Amino acid sequence: MELQLPSRSRSITSGRRFGLHVRLHPLAACVALAFAASAPAAGSDNSARDGGGSLHRVSHLPHSPGLISAAGFTVNTCDDPLPLPSVCPDNTSEGTLRLGLLCAQGGTIDLAQLKCSKITLSAPLTVPPVTLALAGPADGQLTIDAAGKFRAIVHKPALYNNGPSLETLYINSLTIANGRYDNPETLFGYAFGGCIYSTGNVFLKDSTVSSCLVSSPVRFSILGGGAIYAKGLVSLEKSSVT
Fold first, then answer.
1. H or E segment and range at residue 224
2. Residue 15: CB partners within 8 Å, gap ≥ 6?
3. Cis amide bond preceding 26, omega within 30
4. pLDDT score at 43
5. Residue 24 contacts residue 33 (beta carbons within 8 Å)
6. 3-class DSSP state for residue 119?
7. Cα gap 158→167, rounded to integer Å
8. How far out from the chain centre does Cα 236 lie?
9. What pLDDT was estimated at residue 71?
10. Please, which pLDDT band fits residue 68 given cuts at 50, 70 and 90?
């Protein structure tokens, strides 16, 4: 969904195609859709310059990250140090979440063993353009926090390659919070995906996406998906966007 809005406009959640599998009261579902398209904050990747709009499409994605594969990487620390190595060290199967995204080419990244309640990000998490699952603790009490500085998760191919993808990002038993994306342009603007941006599909189960923002200082900007933006489908099961 793409709308032209005045400056300083804001958005809660949207996407060009927003497939819902949401267990909410009818009013809550209507409110979630009603706030689906308005939107400015840090980082530039030209990821939203796809133009055009389309109707929301309801669809269903596979219902369990377990369908992907057994765990391919175990996160054993809540730290997020930078920089990373340019390539994954040989035989690496444990470490930080960010290292897991570098090393796990598909499969599941297991965060269930962590004892902390929050991973505070040092930069956006860049997820490779593969089908991948992030699986948190069963109690769902782990937050991936962007601290209001940048997007939390970017699921797309290399920079400037922003075409639609068939790959899916699965998020299970996690909270993704406090992401933001500011349009960096000064004459025109696009801003999509405050917490999560994907060129493929996004599937959330037993998860929450909250306190996210996209914005633009430019009067005539195209903005949307303050929480989640996907060029494919977005599906929520027993999850919430707030």
1. strand 221-224
2. 1, 192, 224, 225, 228, 229, 230, 231, 234
3. no
4. 34
5. no
6. strand
7. 14
8. 13
9. 54
10. low
**Beta-carbon neighbour count of residue 131 at 10 Å?**
22
Do the beta carbons of residue 32 and residue 71 sit within 8 Å? Answer: no
**Cα 182 versus chain centre, distance:** 15
- Collapsing DSSP to helix, strand or coil, 133 comes out as strand
Higher pLDDT, 14 or 221: 221
Handedness of CA 57, 234, 195, 154 (dihedral sign): negative
Q: Which tokens is 35 given?
A: 């706030």
User: What are 29's two structure tokens?
Assistant: 């579902």
Token pair listed for 53: 């709009």
CB within 8 Å of 93: residues ≥ 6 apart: 72, 73, 74, 103
Task: Tally Cβ neighbours within 10 Å of residue 55.
Answer: 8
Q: What does the DSSP assignment read for 151-217?
A: -SEEE-SSTT-------EEEEES-EEES-EEE---SSSEEEE-SSEEESSEEEEES-EEES-EEE-S
Question: Please, what's the largest Cα pairwise distance for the chain?
Answer: 51
Distance between CA atoms of residues 127 and 207, nearest Å? 18
Q: Which two tokens stand for residue 209?
A: 């996406």
In the structure encoding, which two tokens stand for residue 137, read together?
């603790």
Distance separating alpha carbons of residues 116 and 157, to the nearest angstrom: 30
Tokens found for residue 96 = 């930080």
Enter the tokens of residue 47: 């990821």
pTM across the whole model = 0.75
Q: Cα separations (Å) of 32 from 28, 35, 56, 76, 175?
A: 6, 6, 13, 35, 17
